[in-house]
Each structure stands twice: as structure tokens, then as C-alpha cells.
Amino acid sequence: MIRKATVMKVYKDKYDDYKQRHDKLWPEMAEMLKAHGVHHYSIFLLEETGQLFAYLLVEDEDSFSEVAKTEICQKWWAYMAPLMETNDDLSPVSHDLKEVFYLA
């Protein structure tokens, strides 16, 4: 498995909405992620800044790179766009993190 981590940003007045939408993650979104080899996906919030830290395991980069091309992912991005910083295609503005330590 490949460990991935990224940071994003949710607007400070949208924390509750962000959590509620993820608490009710669309079943087809969860199914698509699993079908593309995504496991143990967690998102954490730093409330002081709105920074989100996402951590997930993926089976392989090629399969994971296909996630963004799916119709359901693009619908999810549009659904979440009012709550967070996004790019022109409505994908979240995100920055991949470089792993500097791991203890198995």
C-alpha cells in the first residue's frame, strides 16, 4: 500500500457543513473510492485555520489517478465547492505532503 497525505482548506464558517456532508458520504462515492484501491481514508481539521489534513492508503498510483476522472467524483467536488477552496475545475485546492517519517 502507498501512504498519501494532502492538505486542503475549508472555510471557517463551513466546518459543520463539511463534517455533515462527509458523515453522509454518498454510497456510490465510497464504492468508487474502494473500487479504485483507496483504503483507510481519514480527514482531520485544524479548527484554528480551516486546514484539512487527509491521509489515505492506495493500492497503486495509476488506479488512484483515475478517481478524479469519474463522474461521481466530479459531482462530489461540485457539491463540496461552496465549502472550501477549489480550483477552476472545482477540485479542492490541495497540496501533497512529503513523508519524512514512518514507524511501522
Features:
single chain; 104 residues; alpha+beta; Alpha-Beta Plaits; four-stranded antiparallel beta sheet; 32% helix; globular
Give the CATH architecture.
Answer: 2-Layer Sandwich
- Name of the level-1 CATH class: Alpha Beta
Number of domains: 1
Give me the Rg, rounded.
14 Å
Structural class: alpha+beta
Let me know the largest β-sheet: 4 strands, antiparallel
Report the oligomer: single chain
For the biggest β-sheet, the strand order reads: 2-3-1-4
Inertia-based shape: globular
Q: Give the total of beta strands.
A: 4
Mean pLDDT: 98
Low-confidence stretches: none
CATH topology: Alpha-Beta Plaits
End-to-end separation: 13 Å
| Count of alpha/pi helices | 4
**What fraction, in percent, of the residue positions are helical?**
25-40%
Catalytic activity: alpha-L-rhamnose = beta-L-rhamnose
Subcellular location: Cytoplasm
Keywords: Carbohydrate metabolism, Cytoplasm, Isomerase, Rhamnose metabolism
GO molecular function, one term: L-rhamnose mutarotase activity
Descriptive overview:
With 104 residues, this protein is of the alpha+beta class. The chain has a single domain (2-96), classed as Alpha-Beta Plaits, CATH 3.30.70. It is 32% helix and 26% strand. It has 4 helices and 4 strands. It has helices at 15-23, 27-35, 61-65, 71-80, and strands at residues 2-9, 38-46, 51-58, 95-96. It has a 4-stranded antiparallel beta sheet with strand order 2-3-1-4. A hairpin with a 4-residue loop joins strand 2 and strand 3. The mean pLDDT is 98. It holds the Pfam family rhaM. Involved in the anomeric conversion of L-rhamnose.
